[in-house]
Amino acid sequence: MADVMTPEQRSRCMSNIRSATKPEMLLRQSLWREGLRFRVRSRLPGRPDIIFTRAKLAVFVDGCFWHSCPVHGTAPKSNQSYWDGKLAGNRARDERVSAELAEMGWHCLRIWEHEVKQDLAAAVRSVIARREAILEGDL
Question: 117-135: per-residue pLDDT in tens?
Fold first, then answer.
């Protein structure tokens, strides 16, 4: 069966789909249990995963594959030219988004997916420490 939408309509529909990854959900649940309150929906550049509005802190949980983690990032062996460009574009977008947020007065914290999986408590501590440092004026 053929698609009933034009490619532009399908692209718009698909871009509105937002799902949280398991590491992101684990981090959010742990931060909530620690008593931290945050927002998860925003129009900020890059659509951060977690937002602390008072501290102006945007937290991203970056997947090891999609954001080319230096420890766990792997490059697919097939269609390598496509994936090299795609993953390089993702890294460039991450840098651009971080710079845009900084220009807007926001602090950006990026946590790797493997950090959440390996030591959730340490990831939570890093978010809490960064938030407190910002609120105390240390950053």
Answer: 999 999 999 999 999 999 9
For the chain, what is the mean pLDDT?
92
- Fold classified for 21-135: Endonuclease; Chain A (3.40.960)
Long-range contacts of 70-78 (CB under 8 A, 24+ apart): 71/112, 71/114, 72/112, 72/113, 72/114
Which amino acid is residue 120, in one-letter code? L
Could you count the other beta carbons within 10 Å of the beta carbon of residue 95?
9
Q: How far apart, in whole angstroms, are the C-alpha atoms of residue 12 and residue 121?
A: 37
Cβ neighbours of residue 106 under 8 Å, at least 6 residues apart?
A: 44, 56, 57, 58
Q: What is the pTM of this model?
A: 0.84
Dihedral (Cα; 45, 93, 129, 27), 10-degree rounding: 80
Interstrand relation of 57-62 and 50-52 (parallel, antiparallel or unpaired): antiparallel
Please compute, for residue 118, the number of CA atoms within 13 A of its CA located in the half-sphere on the CB side.
8
- Domain residue ranges of the chain, discontinuous segments joined by +: 21-135
